[in-house]
Amino acid sequence: MTIADGIWHQIFSFDHYGELLTLVRNSLVAGAALGLVGGLAGVFVIMRDLPFAVHGISELSFAGASAALLLGTNIVAGSITGSLLAAGVIGILGTRARDRNSVIGIIMPFGLGLGVLFLALYKGRAANKFGLLTGQIVAVDTPQMAWLLSTSVVVVIALAVIWRPLAFASADPDVAEARGVPVRGLSIAFMLVLGLAVALSVQVVGALLVLSLVTTPAAAAARVTASPVLLPALSVLFAIASIEGGILLALGSSIPISPYVTTISFTIYVVCRLTGRYGTRGRGARRRSVAQPA
Amino acid sequence: MSAPGTVSVPRARHDEGANDAAVISLRGAALSYGDRSVWSGLELDVYPGDFVAVLGPNGAGKTSLVRALLGRQPLSAGTLTVLGRSPRETGREIGYIPQQAAVSAHAMLRARDLVRFGIDGQRFGPRPRTAAARRQVDEILESVGASSYADVPLSLLSGGERQRVRIAQALATDPQLLLCDEPLLSLDLHHQRAVTRLVDARRRSHGTAVVFVTHEINPVLGLVDRLLYLADGGHRVGTPEQVLTSESLSTLYGTQIDVVRTPGRIVVVGAPDGPATPAHHTHATRATDGVRP
């Protein structure tokens, strides 16, 4: 067997696939929930230009999760705590984009440092440590599953309630404010919702790669549609496809789940970018013919 | 509509109900940021169907006035009522056209979505997409001549097209007051006319009061009933004929200002610290407000 064959076998190996599949049924259910949450939250991450905030929150989420690992408490709860703290700070201190980026740039390395500290003190399995940063197929156990699903439900309900005014405030803040939309309150509310969504995604792809679930699918969808219905629908579809595809592929290998998820999600984006009509200057020139009504 | 004399006669009192039908009523209104007084002693009544232009150099408080009218900037003295109430309670009855480039560049939003926000964007909770609402959006877009690009993302529209959509959004709630903040900025003459014509048509057909903030008077010269001219040294309220004279502006600025009138156009020459004039002006001397080559 050549080395290449060996590597290939590490990446893709589908022996005993059926038996493995039943083991990850929980993961697949959790994955669908995370795809839904990440895809929906991603729409506003793109609209409000928050990818950097997502990254910052995920580092704090990692710190929270590693603290929980060290203390032997619930990792999902730890991850959510870290996320919400970061999201709250960013939401309150970073109302304007310029301030926000500095706030994120300041808390992100701090969070990462804390996380590294907690992991250094942790004496348990090394795979657990690595998983928090780069993801793992968590054989999601029942209490974790309950946390994941109930948090997903909270996020989806919260987004359903604030969706319309949040979209208004994100796209057209001046008029929204004039119309009485609580622009600042919604901004903070969304950061907290985003914090929950990020904490959930950390469980699957790890803190470093959350953007592939919370930003890439929505960015891909925005390339092919501007419809307020299709955009979130496609974003969710892309996110679920990435995560479930990633779980199913990672199942047969010894490699963490994240490269599969990120590669699928990136591929979808590239395809959308190449085929999409929107978001590039080129189309502006094409439609100039209708631009000048008398 | 406007009383020809104008510095509007204060009505009995500014209490509830005593405003007749004044859409906007400013009484001794003043605004200052810390020690710096932006404007003070402002007395202005705007009635249904009035077209009031707000002019002045940058920094004279035009945008602050807009914010005050929208209830986003409390006065430091005096009173302001909009539709007989505190301006903070009148959000939906004011059609607001903000300065350009206010739409987030990251939002993939179609023209029709922006108009839809104007109808019910402030409502929380899930909202069914009904055919009736869609038809309403179509009708509004049709009325401003924007139907052909209803489904095009805003980022792909020209400035003039976007401004039509903005007007449609502002008119979506059938407002009694249309508040336009520099709606002609960076539009060419053709689109300037289109925008002013739409606004003017609306106030004539629906009696909508119009407050039109601009640094160029000429595009709206034939339409304006009254002017509020804000400058660092004070302000003037009156008809264009009263306010835009060499004498009146010289007093206002405290320096010699020449107002040159040609048929259908007014050129103000010599105003210090005037607004940045569009690059394509033909002028030998420093010419500001009201210049339109």
Q: Your description of this structure?
A:
- The complex is a heterodimer of chains A (294) and B (293).
- Chain A has a domain at 15-208: ABC transporter involved in vitamin B12 uptake, BtuC.
- Helices cover 78% and strands 0% of the residues of chain A.
- Chain A has 15 helices and no strands.
- Chain A has helices at 3-11, 17-23, 25-47, 51-71, 75-93, 97-121, 126-134, 142-171, 173-178, 183-205, 211-214, 216-224, 230-250, 258-275, 282-286.
- In chain A, helix 3 (25-47) packs parallel to helix 8 (142-171).
- Chain A is globular and about 65 Å long.
- Chain A starts with a helix and ends in an 8-residue tail after the last helix.
- With 293 residues, chain B is an alpha/beta fold.
- Chain B has helices spanning 62-69, 111-120, 131-143, 159-171, 189-206, 240-243, 246-253, and strands at residues 24-33, 36-46, 51-55, 77-82, 94-97, 177-181, 209-213, 226-231, 234-238, 258-262, 265-269.
- A six-stranded mixed beta sheet of chain B has the order 5-6-7-3-8-9, sandwiched between helices. In chain B, strands 2-1-4 form a three-stranded antiparallel beta sheet, covered by helices on one side. Chain B has a two-stranded antiparallel sheet with strand order 10-11.
- The longest helix of chain B is centred in the C-terminal third of the chain and has 18 residues, at 189-206.
- Chain B is globular and about 60 Å long.
- Chain A binds chain B through residues 46-49, 160-165, 167-168, 170-181, 222, 225-229, 231, 278-279, 283-284, 287, 290-291, 293, and chain B through 70, 72, 91-92, 94, 96, 98-99, 102-104, 106-110, 113-114, 117-118, 120-127, 129, 145, 148-149, 152-153, 155-158, 161, 169-170.
